[in-house]
Amino acid sequence: MADPRPKLQLHFDINQTILVSDPSVKVSTKEGLNIAIAKAAYLRRKDGAPLKMGHPPDPGFLIWHDGTAVDIGERNYSEHNSVPALVRSVIRVSTKADPGAAKFIGQPPEGCVSCYDLFGRDRCRKWVDSGIGKIFQPVFTDLCSHLTWPDDVPVVPELVVQEDGVNYHLLVPSFFNLIVRLKLQGRTFNLVLRTMGSDLEPVGRAIDAFCNEKHPLFAEPMKFVTTTDVICKNATHWTMARDGDKIQLHSGVKTEGSVHGDVRISEHLEAAAHTIGIQDNYQHWRDANYLPAAGKPMWLTVSDFRVHPIFFDDNIHEKEDDSIVCVRVREDPSQPFRQLTGEVTLRLHNITLVKAEIIQAILDPFYFLDSVQQCEQNMSRMRGKPGFLDELYELPE
């Protein structure tokens, strides 16, 4: 009997989604954790005036989103050892999550800006070392502990990154846990790695090492699953080319050639027998001022219940004019794909688009699995909603 559940087509950004460090801009693991904390820590002005991204005022004008002082010396006794809550958009957290020193809230109050947006990446590389970010040192220590490769477990070079004599997990274990759990559930799925950096090769080697049963933390469950279809081969690394509304995939391997157009690329991704790695076009996205229409394309045939694409990326934002995934939709295979507006794209959040949160992926081994299950539930609700196709087809002429 055929499995009635859809095939999951899981697109994963790499940096700050499954990989903490960012080799393309020389961000180490510790610096990546600093940046992740700064992205989730929100500030506002004491006087209620708006904050301008990239133009931080003197710290004396700032308070945390909860109204507490940024200067530790000014915090009262009850606040002194209390770390301000970080922001997360994740809907639910598994009972396996270990928040440690971190506390969390949902959306930040009106008028708040993240420390990362306010101070910029370079100042946030060592965010918890000094200044107002120092209050988050306990959170940073917890995250480092979760990412450190166990001392009593043999080191697998493809699965670790060594910095200052410490071995860290190259990819967050929750990513591998997702693969194992989906396999144990008998799900059909394929992975598509999506990056604008140059990290496909080390990530591919890590996935292959995992598939070859080299990851000691997953030795037991790997006895019961087969992951030959998850292997990431160099031949499956592609480059995405964008020219206006035209899209092409180019392979670095002569025998693979190129794939042109929405329909063929969509079919190519669906039929993939292994994990595919795609280097998307950062220049195209930047030149378009980071509009989602110029970002990483993803294809959705809404009447096709056989395939459910889900895209994880930390640069998926709740903004119609600043996000990274370009959703291209058709109702059925007889129609051409059309590009969703940024406004309509927002309606697909937690259905086919997930804003990846690396802190949650570190603390919660079931973060990705729970997110996939939530997307499936929301997709079922969307498809059962009268008029949902009309909403998705509010497109520009």
Explain what this protein looks like in three dimensions.
There is one protein chain. This protein is α/β, with parallel strands linked by helices. It has two domains: 7-19 and 171-392, no CATH class; 25-147, no CATH class. Helix content is 27%, strand content 21%. The chain is built from 13 helices and 18 strands. The strands form five sheets. It has an eight-stranded mixed β-sheet with strand order 12-11-10-13-9-1-15-18, with helices on both faces. Strands 3-2-6 form a three-stranded antiparallel β-sheet. It has a three-stranded mixed β-sheet with strand order 14-16-17, with no helix packed on it. Strand 10 and strand 11 form a beta hairpin. Helix 1 packs across helix 5 (137-147). The radius of gyration is 21 Å and the shape is globular.
